Fold each of these.
Amino acid sequence: MRPKRSDKEKIFLWIFFPSVIILYLVYKFPTLFVPASQISEIFYFFGKSPSFWYATIYTAIVCYFSLKIIVLGTNPYRTSVKKPISTYQRAKFSSIFLSQLIVFYLIPFIIPALQEGREFFNDPYYAVNKDAYVYVYNGFTSIGGLIYIFFIVPILAWLVGKRYCSWFCACGNLSESVGVSKWGQQWVKNYTPRSKIALKFEWLQFVILIFALLYGLVLFLDAWQIFTSTTLITAMYNFQVFAIDFMFGAIIGIGAYPLLGTRIWCRYGCPLAQLMKLFGKFSLSQAKIKANSKCRGIGECSRVCPMGIDVKSFAYFNKKPIEGIYGLSQTPCISCGSCISACPTQALEFKTIFSKKDIDIRDNFK
Ligand code: SF4
Ligand code: SF4
Ligand code: SF4
């Protein structure tokens, strides 16, 4: 049974849910509230755009929680006992801190204004990018995107699995760092969907990948003017803007943290994650986790997994430890290492790459 939420958490949630909806409406659809000509006058605080303030709050949250983990040096996934943080987790949270601060904040929001020598607190007006959540389409619209999506990502997926999601991606940075906060840990443990039905819904991510690829293809064809209609592009763009970017990516992806855990978008929505999973699965990715014979079947690994993976089923069967190995062939694992850090018996470890053929040991027990 789920533990009750504290009064403080309940008050927070009463403020959080409406705030998320209002914030994203204002941020992404300011013309619903004021004419375009007045956006900078009304919604630019101290001369800075909503994007700047959004990125500032976002980065502050990520950096605060990740730095706290690094400085305290205690294992955030085993709160019942005080254990030192592992080298892997320290490196992961350092990468989260640095990538968020440098790549997703200083480079896009601070350095350009300083370099151009313009007044810092006087942003020019620019529309918010609403394609970020389906950025797989960049593979069709730029050479850099093509190299990134169809060459770099497959190689990374083969070599290190979906570690990109737990070490670097801006969305993942928020999920990982909020996921180790006091309430975030409870949201991951108690609210991440883990039933068989919840697993089945993961096909939704495949549908969004297909949409993102089609969207990219239509933009590509439009650029070459071979065949396409502006109505089709407009229809796809509008669907993307409202259904994927606003409703799924923003409102559900972040607003539903307290209700469904911190990785709903990453598990059911993100087309890049689905692409990485497919690349990893068909190239027999070398990034895997291996169970040894120390498992006692406590199931803490499954409880802390933010992706809803039944980790225990790879380590324990019929009241006995089994030495299962799993990676992208069987699961959407993002290599966050929470299950490894949470296990009290050190029954799980990352498999050294190139070590052994991929075997799902559970097949032997079916
Ligand atoms: S699943 Fe997608 S959004 Fe989530 S961390 Fe990975 S790349 Fe980022
Ligand atoms: S792997 Fe560790 S946490 Fe998971 S069931 Fe076994 S002993 Fe428990
Ligand atoms: S299986 Fe372990 S490493 Fe993979 S996503 Fe779940 S907790 Fe993270």
Note: The longest helix spans residues 87-116.
Amino acid sequence: MATGIKIESLECSYGDQEPLYSNLFLKIKPGETIALTGESGIGKTSLLNAIAGFIPINSGNIGFFSDHVDEPELDAENVRKDRIGFVFQDYYLIDHLTGCQNIMLPGLMGDSLGLGKIEERAKELMASLNVSHLFNRYPDALSGGEKQRICIARAFFKSPDIILADEPTGSLDAKNSDVVIRLLINTAKARGTTLVLATHSKNVAKRMQRVLTLHSKGIEEESNLLS
Ligand SMILES: Nc1ncnc2c1ncn2[C@@H]1O[C@H](COP(=O)(O)OP(=O)(O)OP(=O)(O)O)[C@@H](O)[C@H]1O
Ligand SMILES: [Mg+2]
């Protein structure tokens, strides 16, 4: 099910530090591709983490909706548990698991499909991301671009409605960056997945439908670049 995100009057802070945002509003339609930009330390990672429910919020609301923003909200806990895939800048692959086993992880946690089906699904994702040859390879024998593709395959394991990607090309060269962004956009488009991607790269940002820039006072939006 395509899923949008509605952020209302959000305030977030770490401990007794100054709030990162106060009164932040943002609506992301189901299936939109969004670039989240802004200077280092402004709170891009924190916003993705708050959407994913990895960090608590002080006040306001982060809601999820299916077709129309005015519809009743979906159960946030369920959306976060099963419907969000996260692509981490630093990959967070498990060193002692192979490429395939890393992709299988989301299937091994929670409701079990059975090992055979889980491996089948991982293989299917590896094929679609052109990493089938890395089936038995451990992370320390993978390039940055290969690790990132494994990380993307893992994020797509449960066919999520929303992908949150934190600087997925931050440590990649131009060629691998292009491959990774193309994969993310194409996979998201093919599945109607909403994509929110934090980046410092203008080239990456302009490939998304909307470019949002986070400031200390709120979010600024550039015109829709694809229409
Ligand atoms: N766990 C934490 N505890 C305390 N402060 C934190 C924590 N994580 C982040 N911060 C602070 O919150 C602010 C926002 O950090 P965040 O990582 O969200 O920024 P960012 O926009 O993603 O930056 P970058 O572009 O460098 O990745 C920074 O000032 C950072 O020091
Ligand atoms: Mg960050």
Note: The chain has one domain: 4-218.
